Give the backbone structure.
Amino acid sequence: MESNSSIAITDFSENLLDKTIYFKIIKLDDSFFAWVGCNPILSNMAVAMPAKYGSIPTSSVLFGSKSEQTSSTLAQKLVKRFNRQAFVSCSVPFDPSLSLLIEKRLVEELSKT
Amino acid sequence: MAAAITLRSSIVPSKQTASEISGYHTEVVVNKFEDHLFIIATQFMKLGTIIQVTRDTVTDEYQENVSLFSTKVLLGKDEPITHVMAKTIVTSLNPPVPVILTLALKDTTPATVNAITDLIKSCL
């Protein structure tokens, strides 16, 4: 029986603020996984979901440093934008302007169908 | 039969494959990070239960090192069957790095778990 993969994986890289940032997006049914990093490591992962009551999506850090909020904040922002469950792993040096550019690039890529 | 394995060049290599296992369409994605393997095995096209599997090396009564795997459910059903499936799969893969495994299965019979293990192995 021939079965075709329906899970779409997108890889790309971008030069943002003089750094090469790598992205990986895995699109699933009603959810997606996004990884952002400078090095090929998976140091943390956060999940966020649309909240039933209230407008702020709920998020949780699954593993990695619990004090590192970059991934969960990014996950919340993406949930707010796309209204679906998001798994995010982001390990880039802390820089608010870089985070903004990363978010913008992810939104652009996720908006494509 | 499994479809052709898709390979991409990236800083983090990903391989995916799909197959029909006992009537259910099953997809497997393996992402090779330097410090982790991130494996998705799904029949729902969702991540489902997320399990962290780490290796413990213990010394047995003959002073030999034996590898055991510890499982921790990060998200989802924390039931004995989840740990059993995760340990079965990862022990068979014997990976050099910790594994983040996501399972979303309609069928949890040993035959299905073995078929999924073979699918994952074809993506390593």
The two ends of chain A are 28 Å apart (CA to CA). The longest strand of chain A covers residues 19-28. Residues 96-111 of chain A form the longest helix (16 residues).
